[in-house]
């Protein structure tokens, strides 16, 4: 399940659990709220946004987050989908299910295509992108410094083969 990321996701989670803003570093709650506020502001251009991935059995504790945003240096308004998960949430289908919901949102919101970029060695993300039906466009250095594996799906492709 995905839901808009909010301040409540920055609160202290139960012992042993985590927040999406703490997936890469340890942040104080106020710093997490500031980061969430910046995300909400930066991605406040529907259908773009940022969502918490909340497993149905997790009592509102996020397993990660998914974003939909314009790529940096986009020449034609290219929009990227991206996700990150806490390591203990890998391999459970959360990225595929959540990204599918966000792609539904993207195409219902009028986007014609959605891009996904990753480090070329990130095989788990490549597998998610393949399960979503994205087309591999090779390795490029167009949007971010360094090489990125680039994949894309169009609205027509999504409507024909949604997993």
Keyword list:
163 residues; alpha+beta; Aminopeptidase; 4-stranded antiparallel beta sheet; 3-stranded antiparallel beta sheet; globular
Structure description:
With 163 residues, the protein is α+β, with helices and mostly antiparallel strands. The chain has one domain: Gcn5-related N-acetyltransferase (GNAT) (Aminopeptidase). It is 28% helix and 25% strand. It is globular, with a radius of gyration of 15 Å.
Write the layout of secondary structure elements.
Layout: E1 2-4, H1 29-42, E2 49-53, E3 64-70, E4 79-85, H2 94-108, E5 113-118, H3 123-131, E6 135-140, E7 148-154, H4 155-161
Antiparallel strand pairs: 1-2, 2-3, 3-4, 5-7, 6-7
Low-confidence stretches: 6-25
Q: Which CATH architecture is right?
A: 3-Layer(aba) Sandwich
- Straight-line N-to-C gap: 15 Å
CATH topology: Aminopeptidase
| Average residue pLDDT | 79
Shape: globular
Give me the CATH superfamily.
Gcn5-related N-acetyltransferase (GNAT)
Largest sheet: 4 strands, antiparallel
Number of strands: 7
CA-based gyration radius: 15 Å
State the helix count.
4
Query: Helical proportion?
Result: 25-40%
* Domain count: 1
